[in-house]
Each structure stands twice: as C-alpha cells, then as structure tokens.
Design brief:
377 residues; alpha+beta; elongated; nine-stranded antiparallel β-sheet; 10 helices; five-stranded antiparallel β-sheet
C-alpha cells in the first residue's frame, strides 16, 4: 500500500521543479479524459468506504524534455497511457537541478534527474480542470452524427449518402472545440516529491481565478505490458477512427467478450467456390443474447494499412475494450496491433495545436491481455 507523501510547506522562494501553462485546458483535459475510465467508484458508494471512493489513481511521470506521461491500469490486464508532450504547452520549464528523490527512491543507487514520478487521483484532477465548466468537449460536436455511419447490409451505397462522410474524413480537431466558447487557462506547478500538484485556473483574462492543490502519492510499480514489435502478427491502421468507434458502439453493451479475427490477404483472395470466404478483419461481440459480427473490407479508404502474417482469433473482455471509446472520440487515426500471444495494442492519434501555430500529434495507447482460453491459439 503506497503512503501519501507528506505535503511539506512550500516557501515562497522555493523554485518549482516544473512550471507549465496552457491558454486552453480543453486539449490537455481531452488527453486525460481519454484514459479516465468510467467512474465506477461512484457507483459503489453504498458498498465501500466513502474515504476510498476517490482513490483510483493515475501514475504521472514528468520528463525534462518529453513532457508528461499519465498511466492508468485496471485489473492487471489493461494499461492505458496518455502522452502529453512539452510542445503542447505555452510554457514548459523543468528545473533538473531542483529534483530531489522521493522517499521510496532514497535507497535507489541511481536517481534519474531527468524525470520524476508520482501518483494522483485522476478524477480529482479532471474535476479541478473543469471547475468553471469549460473543459469539456462540446457534445454536439463529438457525437459523430455528421460522419459516414457504419454500413449495414440494407443500406444504400456510399454515393447515395453523398459527400457528407468524406468531408468529415478529415476529422479535424476544430470540430471538437468551438472557437466562440469561454476558455479556461491553467498554470501548473510541482515543487517536487513531497509536495502537492498546484493548479491555478482562470476563466478568460477578466474572469474568476481559483487555485487547486492536489495531494500526490509515492508511485507504486506500474503494470508492464511490453509489446514486442518483432512478434507482431497483425498490424492495421484505420484511416479514420470513426470506423472503429462506430463498430464498437454498434455492439450490445451486454456483450461479455469481443473477438478479433484476421486473415492474411492472400488467404482471403484464395477462397474456393462453395467455401465461405474468410474475413479479412472481423470484430465479433458475443454475449448471453447472441453475437454481432462486423467485417472490414480490403479498402484503403477504410484500412490505410493491413498486415497479417497468419490467421488469428483472440478474445478480450468487452468491458475493457469499451474503455477506449473516450480516446476514440477525440482521435483521427487508430493503429491496432496484436502480438503472437494476443497482447493487443491500440494507439490513438490525437491532434493538438501548438501554442505558436501549427498542429502537433499526441498519442493515447491502450494495451490489453487476451483471455487465457485464446492464448494458445
């Protein structure tokens, strides 16, 4: 059990280890919400101690040159990581010389002065960022109602539905954040191990200002799910994330597990007459009320890249795969990879504007272990 770091008083002359600021917290918040799993703890208040409701924590790593890495795990089988790079901030100042070892690191022979880690209640951080109610993505822009929908068997052709879906294929970040809405700016400071994470939030230049101090905790060892690229059996990139988001949204929430099936292109093309054709890539949801299957065509307008070395079929808990929906909502492209033992890697490309103009790409990654009954396949 990790112990909460003692929150030492911070003299005015203390130079923070990290100072970072953004003029609009919505982009920063979106990257955190992508790994902010459903607040299950709020549904369990009748069965667990209220003092433990908020203790669902995220591991935060600050790196001098890279930025912030936030990691959340679930049930020792799902690992979600959000990468927030230094160039996403208007101001990023990391004072390497002021880094001190955390109590749990005092016995370590070597302390990496280029980075430091701590744990923090993610839900609390998100609530603070949205304290003025202006950190959320506009629901009217994020529902995906304006893009091409999943094609059912009785649907018309793409041409019959017009160019509406093609225009949304760009999936620009602008569609998620309105330009006329109020914005919340943030200045984040962290004095080092043993100190709270301090947020100074302001609504517009003439609006109210608030300061939030969030207790930090000694970091516990993170779940490690290393992905061996040399053992990859499936690699595919969805040209637009809504092709995967809509497929997952179509599945019945009562599904127990989701099965990913893929076959090499050559095997699909060699389908014999009278023999059911093998699917190139299929998502199948199964549950107590039946199953749902969705097949993806060998079409570069859908799958930008598809590489499959052998026929595979791996199952995953649907409840864990559905955790990716928030990240899918804000991403433009999705990379899906599966290792030979079934380890699934989902990487979501999230565009973020640079403070001085232009766009920068950030990533949210989920790694999930396959169910044991499929590992030997």
């Amino acid at each position: 059990m990790s112990q909460m770091m003692s929150q030492r008083s911070q003299p005015d002359e203390t130079k923070p280890l990290l100072t970072a600021s953004v003029h609009d917290v919505r982009y920063f918040t979106a990257l955190l919400r992508g790994i902010g799993f459903s607040n299950v703890s709020s549904l369990l208040q009748t069965t667990i101690d209220r003092s433990k409701v908020w203790l669902k924590r995220a591991s935060v790593t600050l790196t001098a040159s890279s930025g912030i890495t936030v990691t959340v795990e679930e049930a020792r089988t799902l690992l979600a990581t959000s990468y927030i790079y230094a160039d996403h901030f208007d101001e990023w100042l990391y004072n390497v010389d002021d880094l001190q070892a955390a109590p749990s690191q005092l016995s370590a022979p070597d302390v990496d002065r280029e980075s430091t880690s701590f744990e923090i209640p993610l839900n609390t951080l998100l609530e603070c960022l949205n304290i003025f109610g202006t950190a959320n993505i506009s629901s009217s822009n994020s529902t995906g109602s304006k893009h091409k929908q999943w094609r059912r068997a009785d649907d018309g052709s793409d041409d019959e539905r017009g160019d509406e879906g093609r225009r949304a294929n760009a999936n620009r970040i602008d569609q998620y954040f309105g330009s006329n809405e109020k914005r919340t700016s943030m200045r984040l400071t962290y004095a080092g191990p043993g100190h709270a994470l301090t947020l100074v939030l302001a609504e517009d230049s003439s609006g109210p200002t608030t300061t939030c101090e969030i207790s930090t905790f000694d970091p516990e060892p993170n779940l490690e799910l290393p992905f061996d690229a040399d053992q990859t059996v499936l690699k595919t990139i969805f040209k637009s994330s809504f092709w995967l988001r809509d497929a997952l949204s179509e599945l019945d929430p009562s599904c127990d597990k989701i099965i990913l099936i893929a076959n090499p292109v050559a095997d699909v093309q060699r389908a014999q007459r009278g023999v059911p054709a093998k699917p190139l890539f299929r998502i199948q949801g199964t549950g107590a009320f039946g199953s749902t299957e969705m097949d993806y065509p060998n079409d570069r307008e859908v799958l930008e890249t598809f590489e499959c070395s052998r026929s595979i079929s791996f199952s995953y808990r649907f409840a864990q795969i559905s955790r990716t929906l928030r990240a899918l909502q804000n991403s433009t492209k999705t990379s899906l990879r599966i290792e030979q033992d079934g380890l699934l890697s989902l990487q979501f490309l999230v565009p973020v504007p640079r403070p001085r103009g232009g766009m920068s790409d950030s990533f949210i990654e989920f790694r999930c272990l396959a169910l044991d009954d499929d590992v030997a396949h």
